Amino acid sequence: MEYILSKKEGGCIFCTYAEADEVVFAREHVLVATDEAFVLLNKYPFAAGHLLVVPRRHVGELELLSDVEHDALFRLTRDAATRLRRAVSCQGLNVGLNLGKSAGASLGEHLHVHIVPRWDGDTNFMPVLADVRVMPQHLQATFQHLYPFFLDIPGRRAGRPAP
User: Fold this and answer.
1) Which one, of 5, 76, 6, lies nearest residue 35 by Cα?
2) Are 94 and 115 in contact (CB under 8 A)?
3) Rounded to two decimals, what is the model's pTM?
4) What are residue 77's phi and psi, to 5 degrees?
């Protein structure tokens, strides 16, 4: 509901993150940014640790990615999924894209990959009956927990430019 009711600013939020400097990464929960893509926490998650992997270039369809962008996006998706699993000891992961509004993309103009940690028995009635999500951890606490797991990925990160 926070997202639905919030005032939408002009422009693409993902492009704003792609152009941001390392000083704002912690505030915006950007874990790492490479030359072609970046990883951040979803501000409206389905589960604690819900990540988004986003190409830096504003593109809404997979076929519009260059080969370099495609490879970098999915390599970073693999790396993020590996680190997320290690960080939260989840039993599974949902990894996917919603391409287009009819497929559920709320930000369809800038494609992004969702990585959602899952545990046996973690679904409950709240999202089904009341359109409510129960989050056991604040985003900043999740960011602080995950951040060290992403330090070995070459790239820019909060407070530290790429080497």
Assistant:
1) 76
2) yes
3) 0.81
4) -60, -45
How far is Cα of residue 159 from the mean position of the Cα atoms in its chain?
A: 19
pLDDT digits (tens, 9 = 90+) for 52-88: 999 999 999 999 999 999 999 999 999 999 999 999 9
User: What pLDDT does 78 receive?
Assistant: 98
Q: Name the residue with tokens 């407070």.
A: 159
What DSSP string runs through 82-148? Answer: HHHHHHHT-SEEEEEE--SGGGT-TTTTS--EEEEEE-TT---SHHHHHS----SS-HHHHHHHHGG
29 included as an active-site residue: no
Residue of 50, 110, 112, 114 marked catalytic: 112
Q: Delimit the domains of the chain by residue range.
A: 12-150
- Cα 75 from chain centroid (whole Å): 14
Tell me the CA end-to-end span of the chain in Å, nearest whole number.
Answer: 40
| Domain spanning 12-150: CATH 3.30.428.10 | yes
* Cα–Cα nearest to 112, from 98, 102, 101, 123: 98
| Res 3 pLDDT > 80 | no
